[in-house]
Amino acid sequence: MRTNSKIKEITMTLQQIEKVIKMIAYHKGFDEPDANAIENFEYMKRDFLRQLAELLKGFGVEVRVPG
Fold first, then answer.
1. Contacting residues for 37 by C-beta, under 8 A, at least 6 apart
2. 6-26 burial string, b = 16+ CB within 10 Å, else e?
3. SS3 30
4. 58 Cβ partners below 8 Å, 6+ apart?
5. Alpha helix positions (H), 29-60
6. CA 15 to CA 26: how far, in whole Å?
7. Do residues 55 and 8 lie in contact, with contact meaning Cβ atoms separated by under 8 Å?
8. What is the pLDDT confidence band of residue 66, given thresholds at 50, 70 and 90?
9. Contact, 9 vs 44, CB < 8 A?
10. What whole-number distance in Å separates Cα of residue 51 and Cα of residue 61?
11. Is the pLDDT reported for residue 3 higher than 80?
12. Termini Cα distance of the chain
């Protein structure tokens, strides 16, 4: 994969992480938060973080993803 393609994919992954974090905050903001929705978004966030960590390896950057 070319460097420009990798950078584009990293950027898109970061944007997805940002969206998921906003959705988690949104759902946590309810008087009665939907635990299932929050759990699903947390799973998505971990998945995107793993994807980001894999992409960054190509640049010699090691990232530890919790969970």
1. 23, 27
2. eeeebeebeebbeebeebbee
3. coil
4. 1, 6
5. 35-57
6. 17
7. no
8. confident
9. no
10. 13
11. yes
12. 28
